[in-house]
Amino acid sequence: MLSAAKQNQFYKAFLDKDNTFEGTFFVGIKSTGIFCRPTCSAKKAKIENCDFFNTAQESLLAGYRPCKICRPLSLPGEMSDVVKRLVDAVEEEPSHRWCDEDIRQRGFDPSTVRRHFKNRFGMTFVAYARARRMGIALKTIRDGERVIDAQIDAGYESGSGFRDAFSKIMGDSPAHKNKHAKILKADWIETPIGPMIALCDDDALHLLEFTDRRGLEREIERLRERENIAIVPGKTDITMQVRNELEAYFNGTLKTFTVPLKIYGAEFQQSVIKVLQTVPYAETRSYGDQARILGNPKAVRAVARANGTNQIAVIIPCHRIIGADGSLTGYAGGLARKKWLLDHERKSILM
């Protein structure tokens, strides 16, 4: 979440095509669905029609595709044939899940491609393609649009590519699913440490994750297929409660969430999640502590695996679980976020 002052600074640099800002931010143009580098020579949009991002990956996850004029995924003054061909291939079939064999069939070595993308853009090619797929779905959710409107904004004259990318992640529309399918409303929620996606119905919150979480689209697909769920953009009263409580939490004024939750998983997984919910605000426990509370001290690895199935970040505080030696352990949202959340809670206690 960029401050108004920072957005104004970036917009001025964008208007001036200030090359000293190259690589420090990207601009998403709402009217065209593209994102640009600061020095793009295309006609400038008004500031209210611009979104500003720190990285290309953030731009992709917000649903923007790279500009063909300034080519934000290439270095200034240089256009890699590897990048151009693979980015074009993703745009031709945005719903496709790429593997090493696909890359080889196009005459490239997967390790070379991976290194090329990682060194220059901070993400692998597979991560780029994944972010593009997720971005298509998340743009619809973020803007609360109908799928057809988002398809047109994204530049697809034919709906097939766009709809495939959307439906493979979020599922078919309710009209195309079994009439008994459960419907969840999906909403985009901005937070100080990155946007989150919330899936809610009228009764509970079913999923809350950071939009850049690795494996998020698989997580959503498993949920909707296992539970016969259709996901559509929208809000419920539960969504608004989630928004309000998260805002209070990040402001440091809320210590205990009250939003009703829907917990999935086998009996053991659910028991682990229930213990996880008892970790007090601003305190930490280890996997071993959790296992002992469950009455099975040897089940440390099983507890760790069950923690990893948590689908409701922040509200169910898996960020409060650390290593037995006090070190930060794996966190699906990233260790930097985990540290931020722990520091935030400790500071809020002292306020």
Q: Could you give the topology of this structure?
A:
Layout: H1 4-16, E1 26-29, E2 34-36, E3 50-53, H2 56-61, E4 65-66, H3 81-92, H4 100-105, H5 110-121, H6 125-143, H7 147-153, H8 159-170, E5 182-189, E6 196-200, E7 205-210, H9 216-227, E8 229-233, H10 237-250, H11 267-276, E9 285-286, H12 287-293, H13 300-307, E10 321-322, H14 335-350
Parallel strand pairs: 2-4, 5-8, 9-10
Antiparallel strand pairs: 1-2, 1-3, 5-6, 6-7
Description:
With about 350 residues, the chain is α/β, with parallel strands linked by helices. Among the domains are: about 1-65, 3-Layer(aba) Sandwich (DNA Methylphosphotriester Repair Domain), CATH 3.40.10; about 80-170, Arc Repressor Mutant, subunit A (Orthogonal Bundle), CATH 1.10.10; about 265-350, Winged helix-like DNA-binding domain superfamily/Winged helix DNA-binding domain (Arc Repressor Mutant, subunit A, Orthogonal Bundle). Helices cover about 45% and strands about 10% of the residues. It is built from 14 helices and 10 strands. The protein has helices spanning about 5-15, 55-60, 80-90, 100-105, 110-120, 125-145, 145-155, 160-170, 215-225, 235-250, 265-275, 285-295, 300-305, 335-350, and strands at about 25-30, 35, 50-55, 65, 180-190, 195-200, 205-210, 230-235, 285, 320. The strands form 3 sheets. A 4-stranded mixed sheet has the order 3-1-2-4. A hairpin with a 4-residue loop joins strand 6 (about 195-200) and strand 7 (about 205-210). Helix 7 (about 145-155) packs across helix 8 (about 160-170). Mean pLDDT is about 85; it is low at about 145-160.
